[in-house]
Amino acid sequence: MSPVHEGPPPPGARAAVAVAFCPAPPLLLPAVEVRAAADTRALRAACAAAVTDLLAVRPEVVVVVGTGAAPGERFGTGDVGCLHGFGIAVELPFDGRVRPGGKHVPVPHALGASLLDQAGFAGVRVGVGPDDLAQLVRDLPAPVGVLAMGDGSARRTMKAPGYLDEAAAPFDAAVADALSSGDANALAGLDVDEGERLLADGVPVWRAVGAALSGGRITARLHHDAAPFGVGYLAASWVAA
After folding, report:
1. How far, in Å, CA of 227 to CA of 48, rounded?
2. How many of the other CB atoms lie within 10 Å of CB of 168?
3. Closest CA to 170 of 220, 232, 228
4. What angle separates helix 203-213 from helix 168-181, to the nearest 10 degrees?
5. Cα–Cα distance measured from residue 13 to residue 61, given in angstroms and rounded to the nearest whole number
């Protein structure tokens, strides 16, 4: 792999693919908390910075990739996500106004769309699952934007959703190292079974991004690496030439 340099991409940087890696907790939405804690504010700021880096290359299309989409399924204009399963009466349009009969968008895609809204992105959005990312990256004209939504392990502490597993922190640390160094091969090689055992929902997404960009020259920047609620939250940005 070619040398990697840390730092944000310059405005208008030449790129084939720009990626923003963000976690997908409902806490990304200000409406979820009456008063945001410092940890939550830091997470939101990191995600905003990652998306800003993504949009700096001026992609015409941003592909939002997350779990929950069936192979071959795509989301676009008029589709909508909701957080009713979390006890939150919030609907999140994926792109533009919700249309009658629009598809239901999984939570990671809905939160990704919200991040794009907050950043003012007015271009085309396509939502897919990990299995369909590589083909879209090949087919779409450069520069392509990818917003990769996924959490680290939910077993980082005893109060975590999956309780404590001593392997969780080292697993997330390895992902953070790959994100900060732009190591696409390391992401592509993440252990699926271990990710499932550690409740790391981001593994399929990270593997898909790594496989799609393997062999490219990547500029990488890690914005966030924390687990304030016992879940690993990682935010980063890549630009692949």
Report:
1. 18
2. 27
3. 232
4. 30
5. 16
Q: Are 68 and 108 spatial neighbours (Cβ–Cβ below 8 Å)?
A: yes
Task: Give residue 43's identity as a one-letter amino acid code.
Answer: L
Q: Which residues are 93's β-sheet partners?
A: 80
Q: Dump pLDDT digits (tens) for 18-64.
A: 999 999 998 888 777 766 688 899 999 999 999 999 999 999 999 99
Determine the average pLDDT of the residues in 70-79: 94
What is the signed CA dihedral for 86, 88, 90, 95, rounded to 10 degrees? -10
Residue pair 47/28 in contact by the 8 Å Cβ criterion? yes
- Cα–chain center distance at 166: 25
Residue 215 burial (CB < 10 Å; 0-12/13-18/19+)?
Answer: exposed
